[in-house]
Amino acid sequence: MALGGNPVFNSKNYREQTRAAGPTGAASTTYAEQNMSPQALQDLYSKPSASGLQMGRLTYNDVINKTALCLGLVVIGAAIGWQLPALMLVGALVGLVLGLVNSFKREPSPILIMLYAGFEGLFLGGISAFFEARYSGIVFQAVLATFSVFAVTLVLYRSGKYRATPKMTKMFMIALIGYGLFSLLNFVLMLTGVVGGEFGMRSGGLGLAIGAFAVLLATYALVLDFTSVSEGVRQGAPAKMAWTAAFGLTVTLIWLYVEILRILAILRGND
């Protein structure tokens, strides 16, 4: 059973489709096969086995391709947002709404997922341009650090040294709720002028500590995404679940990038 991650993998609809496929997706012997000649049967069983994609099953390659497409749309949106920073707020609001819609949809919607990637790109482009104007080179550092963290997390997961467990997942969910409530409170206090500065209560040493904590949460979210994909491929999940996996990975990478960008900005601001 998948541990957390994308909820679609644990939904009733997903379980029913997986059970219908069976553990290997093999079909039972049909009436037509029973009446074939020996040579026809031999030719049939001599054919190469169908790939997961041909059988309509989730594959790693499909997840990689869909994720690359989403990240490509994020980059395109970011390029536009970089040139037109005024679109940052639009990207943030529409991206938030689409993120919530995609999170709670029973079936993945490729169009909505791609729109989410594009609008989040507008937000990232605007906020990146803002910080790049203040701290030259910070965006390149943040992008490099983000993909470095992603690569290290993937290597550790593949080696078996960083895996999701039920206990860790429960702790992750509690920590995530706490982090979300703190971020909401900080945003409200900044909006009402109770606290000042670029990051409100997330400045200085406290800001660095919270940022490091958020990066650790994001790495565990990546592990949950990897686990959901692995379980989906193993159980023969429908190919459309590749969009769900791509959405989850895109959300986590965007979150990771923003947290790293914030940490670097605090460090550069203290220089």
Q: How is this structure best summarized?
A:
The chain has 271 residues and is mostly helical.
What is this structure's SSE topology?
Layout: H1 12-21, H2 31-34, H3 38-46, H4 60-83, H5 88-104, H6 110-134, H7 138-159, H8 166-191, H9 204-235, H10 241-269
Organism: Paeniglutamicibacter kerguelensis
Transmembrane segments: 63-80, 86-104, 111-131, 137-159, 171-194, 206-229, 241-267
Region (Disordered): 1-29
Feature tags:
disordered N terminus; YccA/Bax inhibitor family protein; mainly alpha; single chain; 10 helices; 271 residues
Polypeptide structure, described:
The chain is an all-alpha fold and 271 residues long. The chain has one domain. It is built from ten helices and no strands. The chain has helices at 12-21, 31-34, 38-46, 60-83, 88-104, 110-134, 138-159, 166-191, 204-235, 241-269. Helix 4 (60-83) crosses helix 6, helix 7 (138-159) packs across helix 10 and helix 9 runs antiparallel to helix 10 (241-269). The protein is globular, with a radius of gyration of 22 Å. The model is unreliable at 1-33 and 49-54 (pLDDT under 50).
